[in-house]
Amino acid sequence: MKFGVIVFPGSNCDHDCYYAAKDVMGQEAEFIWHKDTKLDGIDCLIVPGGFSYGDYLRAGAIARFAPIMEEVQKFAEKGKLVIGICNGFQILVEAGLLPGALQRNDNLHFICKNVQLKVENSKTSFSSACAPGQVLSIPIAHGQGNYFADDQTIAELKKNNQIVFRYCDEKGVVAKENNPNGSLEAIAGICNKKGNVLGMMPHPERAAEDVLGSSDGKFILQSIINTVTGKN
Amino acid sequence: MWKAQIDVSYKDGILEPQGVAIKDSLASLGFAGIEKVKVGKLIEIELSGNLTEDKAKEEVTAMCKKLLANVVMENFSFILKKVEK
What we know:
The complex is a heterodimer.
Chain A: E1 2-7, H1 14-24, E2 28-33, E3 44-47, H2 67-77, E4 81-85, H3 87-94, E5 101-103, E6 111-119, E7 135-142, E8 146-148, H4 151-159, E9 163-168, E10 187-191, E11 197-200, H5 217-229
Parallel strand pairs in A: 1-2, 1-3, 3-4, 4-11
Antiparallel strand pairs in A: 5-8, 6-7, 6-9, 9-10, 10-11
Chain B: E1 2-10, H1 17-28, E2 40-47, H2 53-68, E3 74-82
Antiparallel strand pairs in B: 1-2, 1-3
């Protein structure tokens, strides 16, 4: 299968995503410049982390109007897979591909550390290689990852099982002290209603090899590969 | 020329961590009686004087909705003034 990694001015996790997809997972991968508008042959798009357009105005606010984003919208409408990681998640919420918003962390710090994630829904295209309730060790690195949505949206996310990952401890306990940024419902990652667009603040590509301290990120990439190649 | 002064700030009820931090720090400097601090953005936009007032208002409103504010968590308001260049 083929991954497409979108590159904005200010993306800085694009090469890590490309490396994880191509060298670690052994799949085809291609960089896609934000001014390009062709997505031929791509099975899954990765909107990577970084500081697109310097995060001016709001994180993701300007990137969301890049020429490529209209194609991303169409790509998602066709039911193809799109995963936004960190700044990529921020761009997808700004673009309206995912509900809610990402606010400044409640302690105002930029947080860069390893966290534990509970797989709340292991039936999505992005988590099917995980066991239900599995705890993944994956790092976060963000200043604005505090997930916010109104009560109605949160209720809908819960009802449709769109909350895919939540912050937890090593045992999978979701509690206030394990929530690094103040996200409502300890949300670390959500998908759209159709289940083909996922946004997550943690960086699976930074946890794709044991030498990096964890290879749990591979579960997410493997889930995508299984979905595309029909191995689910 | 028209000049729009746009105020973008968090909606009430949304925890605004910057405001809370500033409130705490003002309190620690001895300023008493502060009940709330809210941090927002002020954006100034200059528009062509050839536009009618209604058109200018319409344009600025569209800009706010499309880009300048994230209406999920922010409100916006603006003042439009005619100014000499």
